Amino acid sequence: MTRFVYSTFVGLIGAAIVHLLIIFLLPTLSTIKSWNFILENADAFQPTEILVNSLDENQNYSLDPLFRHFVCRYDLSEGAVKVTATTSDIFWSLAVFDSIGTTIFSANDRIAANSQIDLAVLNPKQLRFVRQNSPEETSASLIASATTDQGFILIRAFVPDSSWQPAASKILETMECSTLEF
Amino acid sequence: MREFFSVFIALSIALTLGITSAYFVSREFLGFGSIQYGQWTAWPNAGTSNSDPYSKAHAARTGKFAMGSAEGLVFIATHDDQDTLLKGNCNYQFAGKIPAARYWTLRITDGQFVRSGPTQTAEYAVSSTSVLRDKDGKISINISKNIAAGNWLQNGGDGNRLLIMTLYDTSIATVTGAATITMPQIKNVGCSND
Fold first, then answer.
1. Residue B44 contacts by C-beta under 8 Å, 6 or more apart in sequence?
2. Kind and range of the H or E run holding A142
3. CB contact under 8 A, B56 and A27
4. Per DSSP, what are the bridge partners of residue A93?
5. Is the pTM value of this prediction over 0.80?
6. CA-to-CA distance for B131 and B141, rounded, in angstroms?
7. Are B13 and A12 a contacting pair at CB < 8 A?
8. Which pLDDT tens digit goes with each residue over B10-69?
9. Which residues contact residue A76 at a Cβ distance below 8 angstroms, ignoring those fewer than 6 apart?
């Protein structure tokens, strides 16, 4: 009997270890669902709209149905990425995600100097270059520093009613996603 | 033989309990570090490099796109003011002041975050640009099956409901002395059993 109690006790401690191992390893060992979704639905450096209806039930609460969402997937090994778009009196915000789904930078329309979205995402090497040489291309850009080469930029544009659709569409139409060669 | 039996018991408990608990917790538990005002809960660290391992596991598994701190903050309510789960067959009154934010949206979903409502044209989301306010700036929204005068959000059907309020461009997560922040109340004003 004591043997049985003892092995149950050992089993419970083992369960705690297994539980913690899975929780800690899940983000690194499993595929990251949000990143996978972006990989499947958006080509690199190609501005793409993410439709709330195309997401599965667990994902879609994080995308507000009163917003439109535009994505640019980047790969910094091909060069730093620069995203520009023209906006007109519409509330927008943006976030830069790395390939494990972590937000590494965020901003909103108040941070922009004019009605232009202008953001550059750089890895440490590219960031050092920009700091030392202040190239023309990034002189007016918001600078986000990334630790991993792959990721995506998500722009949210507020469309509380259909009268805001043209302003949101303008962001997508003028959105450019280009690499910077240093 | 008895040795083998003990090891077998210990191993099977460790594996089944460890795996199933991790499976459910990573799906249902949104992580530590939440802030709570009344019935409303938010996870300001979700999706940032500061988030805890549970929150990271949940994010990896569910694929949510977290809000950056400069973007906004999502508050979720699962219970009404009487601590009863929000239901599809009940009517609620959402009333009070919304914390300082440039814009906000409020929507209703089922317990799995899927947009709810019996019809496709349901008014399932309202925002700060469209609601009516009283002279003190307070907001009252009727959450009911049938259309109501004033501000209205459609409820209906069966099962649990979630209210999701997103504050855009808000400093609420960084404000200290959070006791001064009051959130809107969610009052149950009657349920139907049909």
1. B33, B35, B69, B73, B173
2. strand A142-145
3. yes
4. A108, A156
5. yes
6. 8
7. yes
8. 999 999 999 999 988 888 888 888 888 889 999 888 888 888 888 888 888 887 888 888
9. A121, A122, A123, A126, A146, A149, A150, A151
